[in-house]
Design brief:
By secondary structure, the chain is α/β, with parallel strands linked by helices. It is built from 7 helices and 8 strands; from the N terminus they run E-H-E-H-E-H-E-H-E-H-E-E-H-E-H.
Length: 268
């Protein structure tokens, strides 16, 4: 049986700070993914449809309140129960806590590989503990991750540095970055990609651009080294209103393909 990956759209940005917009991302990523301008071939030689199934579970109907966490987790559990690996399309990064909760229910404590400009470890950002700046603090408090490795971080505040020490988070900063400094991780592995982890010269369509980031090639090099079973993933924080000529949507769609191919390869 071919490995199966199921996309799940989570169009929520109620927990965004400064500006909203990522709720429009799932539709824009899908349009780029299925566009005839590209193909479904992947860099590891696999091709969606031929070597693995890339399905789409549609968007989860969300109310944009605290009840969404249980709704998202239940939808993720249903995908896993159906034999597929969930690949979530955010939405802002707040959705990751609920996705991880759903994956954890099936697989137990996870190793998480997190790409981002920001550590998202705030205890309470702008009086909102569910903020998109806080999901990894909640994930660690929930006991859903046995190891958290963050790559591309370049905005580490004193508070988040203290939080990282509190939770034992391993941070790979951008200063002197090379892909081989990122460890090869054990599974079950969950991968979270915040688009603003990539330099805004390549991915301008984000709410909080931070210069000096990863290139897409560097991110893919890190992924290529991972050999553990990938049991879930997300691509978050794409904001179409700041994109130029759909560049970031195309990049996000490539990430979806390459994450899917990695899931399929490591399941073999």
């Amino acid at each position: 049986m071919r490995p199966a990956i199921a996309l799940i759209g989570l169009p929520s940005d109620i927990n965004s700070s400064f500006v909203r917009g990522p709720a429009a991302a799932p539709a824009a990523i899908r349009a780029a993914l299925w566009s005839d301008r590209g193909s479904l071939s992947c860099e590891n030689g696999m091709e969606a449809g031929a070597d693995f199934t890339l399905g789409d579970s549609g968007d989860v109907p969300l109310r944009e309140d605290a009840s969404d966490d249980a709704t998202i987790a239940a939808a993720v559990r249903a995908i896993i129960a159906g034999g597929a690996v969930p690949l979530a399309l955010g939405g802002d990064h707040a959705i990751t806590r609920a996705v991880v909760a759903g994956v954890h229910a099936a697989h137990g404590p996870l190793t998480i590989l997190h790409f981002d400009a920001h550590p998202d470890l705030y205890d309470n950002f702008e009086d909102n503990p569910r903020s998109h700046a806080s999901p990894f603090a909640r994930i660690m408090e929930d006991g859903h991750a046995s190891r958290l490795v963050q790559v591309g971080i370049r905005t580490l505040t004193h508070h988040c540095r203290e939080q990282a020490q509190r939770f034992g988070v391993e941070i790979v900063p951008m200063a002197d970055f090379t892909p081989d400094v990122v460890p090869v991780l054990r599974g079950p592995l969950y991968i979270s990609v915040d688009i603003d982890g990539i330099d805004p010269s390549e991915a301008p369509g984000v709410s909080h651009p931070e210069p000096g980031g990863l290139t897409l090639r560097e991110l893919l090099a890190v992924l290529r080294r991972q050999t553990a079973p990938v049991v879930g993933a997300d691509v978050v924080e794409y904001n179409p209103q700041f994109d130029t000529h759909g560049r970031t949507a195309i990049l996000a769609a490539k990430l979806v393909r390459e994450l899917s191919a990695l899931i399929a390869k490591n399941a073999a």
